[in-house]
Amino acid sequence: MHRCRRWVTLACGLSPIAFVIVWTVGGYHSIYLSRGVATSHLPAQADCKSCHQTPWQPLVRLARVDNDIRSVHDVDCQRCHRQNKQDHNSFAPAKGVPDCAVCHQEHRGFERLTDHADDFCTKCHSPFEQHPEFAVHRGRPTDSLEPSEAMMYRELLAIAEYGPTPEKWMDKTALHFNHQDHLKPLHTVWEKQMDASDSPKTVQLQCADCHQQDDTGLYMRPIVFEQHCQQCHPLRFSGKLSEQPLPHETPDIVHGVLRDRLMAYADDHPEEVVGASPSTRSRLPNKSTPTAPKDRWNWVEEELRLIESSVFQAVPGVSASPKNNACQKCHFTTTDDSDIGFQIQSPSIPVRWFAHSRFDHSAHRDVSCIECHHVVPGATSLESTSVKDILMPELNVCQSCHGATRTVPTQRYGRQNCVECHQYHHVHESSATDVQSE
């Protein structure tokens, strides 16, 4: 009986060891896993070395009682993931920036490694009253809250500036635009842009007429003049030369188009060319001799300067208000020493205001635009009269649905964890300064 018990005990002790040896020699390492890997890492599950370059690190960590020792290093992750920690490197010198594996913990049974508990964020980003870099500040700064590069305002400073008076942040997009005017039901659309009719009609514009979701439904497409502006604002500043409006292009291209149209007009109407003498006219009926090249060229140059002056800068005798000019109705123009003499300042409209955020417009389709994008909280219409108004929602607008202070009906409650809206990494390196030039 004792001998039998001894053999049973020995077998029970050796069997697991033999099992481990057989599986290890056979290359079956899954027995060492506490749990499976995340769904996105399933292709690498059969090759442990694809992530774990340094072996036995868990035992070393246990022996040294050092939680910073890990078997997966940032360089291992960055072979597949190009995101890095450069955004946080200069802002956490005391505690240091955590390694990838600190936040993205594998073999825990998680399907996604980007769904983090809030304490991953609040270890550094707390208390919020002293850590304001997430918000767009509209109010007067305090002694403890001065906008500066050192407070992670890089993205905001690229597209906004503090006003000349200490009242609010201002959008520094180089453009003249009035949202309130464009939402009045008095806008004239010239149907000739689409068909042979030239009769105007009035329309009531809605936000979605210009601000249209991209194919993902997440964000908005850039505003394009030909799609969103031209129907109401055709660039008809060379009517006698051509029925077609001028292209919405750079001064160089507009200059070339105007010159071509003037040359063609001079050929078709030689009698209007200043300086053309009677001797240049043909004595044969219904026949004409081409205008003298010198007179024709001088006339084109003179007319070109006049038209460009009215297109690119204030019309003589007319107020310099943007509404009374062509390009200056919307754009800022400058004079220079180039052959044309004018330049149009690029508006540099941001494609995304918050490069470190995530947002889904399609998920918020039941919420009106004005509820989030407004000047006066609670307004029923958009009261913005200047492009300087920053129409991004305040934090309390989001918290009315996402947060402990939510005030909307139950069916509209949303999740409130940090990673629902905030990203740690940039989507790509240039996202903070992406702008559209139109």
Short key terms for the protein model shown above:
two-stranded antiparallel sheet; about 25% helix; about 450 residues; mainly alpha; 14 helices; 8 strands
Characterization of this structure:
The chain is built from 14 helices and eight strands. It has helices at residues 2-25, 57-64, 74-77, 86-89, 100-103, 119-122, 154-159, 179-182, 207-210, 225-228, 251-268, 293-312, 369-372, 395-399, and strands at 160-162, 169-171, 187-190, 200-203, 333-335, 342-344, 349-350, 435-436. It is elongated. The model is unreliable at 137-154, 191-196, 276-287, 315-323 and 429-433 (pLDDT under 50).
Largest beta sheet, briefly?
A: 2 strands, antiparallel
Q: How large is the count of helical segments?
A: 14
Low-confidence stretches: 137-154, 191-196, 276-287, 315-323, 429-433
Determine the N-to-C terminus distance. 92 Å
Order of helices and strands: HHHHHHHEEHEEHHHHEEEHHE
Percentage of residues in DSSP E strands: 5-15%
What is Rg? 34 Å
Strand tally, please? 8
State the secondary-structure class. mainly alpha
What is the averaged pLDDT score?
A: 74
Strand order of the largest sheet: 1-2
Q: What share of the residues lie within helices?
A: 25-40%
The outline comes out as elongated
Looking at the chains present, what oligomeric state does this protein adopt? single chain
Outline the secondary-structure elements.
Layout: H1 2-25, H2 57-64, H3 74-77, H4 86-89, H5 100-103, H6 119-122, H7 154-159, E1 160-162, E2 169-171, H8 179-182, E3 187-190, E4 200-203, H9 207-210, H10 225-228, H11 251-268, H12 293-312, E5 333-335, E6 342-344, E7 349-350, H13 369-372, H14 395-399, E8 435-436
Antiparallel strand pairs: 1-2, 3-4, 5-6, 7-8
Helix pairs in contact: 11-12
